[in-house]
Amino acid sequence: MARYLDIHPENPQPRLISQVVEALRDDALIAYPTDSGYALGAQLGNREGRDRILRIRDLDDKHHFTLMCSDFAQLGQFVHVDNSAFRAIKASTPGPYTFILPATSEVPKRLMHPKKRTVGVRIPDHVLVQTLLAELGEPLLTSTLILPGETEARTMGWEVKEELDHSVDLVIESGDVIAEPTTVIDWSEGAPEVLRYGSGDASRFEV
């Protein structure tokens, strides 16, 4: 059964944040709230975590995983950002956007798209997630919690606990969560392409 932690949305309790980070370092798979619905998260080095996410969401190996980053400096360690993308991405973050970009050598190969060698990155505008990332000290491997047959991300921690009690190790509750997932922008070919319209304003990326 999954552990269930209720963490304050504006002043996350350090003791509880430490418990989540400890669980992640022990290869736990967590379900946690973000600025665009619930997401599944695991430490980058958690090999089984990637596969568990694919199973829960019923996805194949071509799924673009996302690295949840604390800031633009950290994001820049894991993806190549050319001049055309730099300003637009920096101006849009933190916020509900996911950007697909060419991965650097810092990204484990199993997390890259098998043919394109790309990975998703995003910087959340969310107190709990930023606190978690600061304590973890590295990006979090993540994927929006949209279950098979559904189109929206989950928003209620207790519902996630009920449905995924035996599929994840820990569920975090932390204030109100909106249902709309991130807007996904593919910038891997040198120009932005909107792959998914979500809670982030996509008009600035439409040519």
What structural keywords apply?
single chain, 207 residues, alpha/beta, ten-stranded mixed sheet, 6 helices
Structure explained in plain terms:
With 207 residues, this protein is α/β, with parallel strands linked by helices. The chain has 6 helices and 10 strands. It has helices spanning 14-25, 47-57, 72-78, 83-92, 127-136, 157-163, and strands at 3-6, 30-34, 37-43, 66-68, 97-102, 118-122, 140-144, 170-173, 183-186, 193-196. A 10-stranded mixed beta sheet has the order 1-8-2-3-7-4-6-5-9-10, sandwiched between helices. It is globular and about 45 Å long. The model has no long low-confidence stretch (mean pLDDT 93).
Shape, please?
A: globular
Estimated helix fraction: 25-40%
What's the pLDDT, averaged over the residues?
A: 93
Q: Specify the number of helices.
A: 6
- Looking across the biggest beta sheet, what order are the strands in? 1-8-2-3-7-4-6-5-9-10
Q: Helices and strands, in N-to-C order?
A: EHEEHEHHEEHEHEEE
CA distance, first residue to last residue: 47 Å
Assess the beta-strand content as a share of residues: 15-25%
Number of strands: 10
Largest sheet: 10 strands, mixed
Rg from alpha-carbon coordinates: 16 Å
- Which runs of at least 5 residues are low in confidence (pLDDT < 50)? none
The class by helix and strand makeup works out as alpha/beta
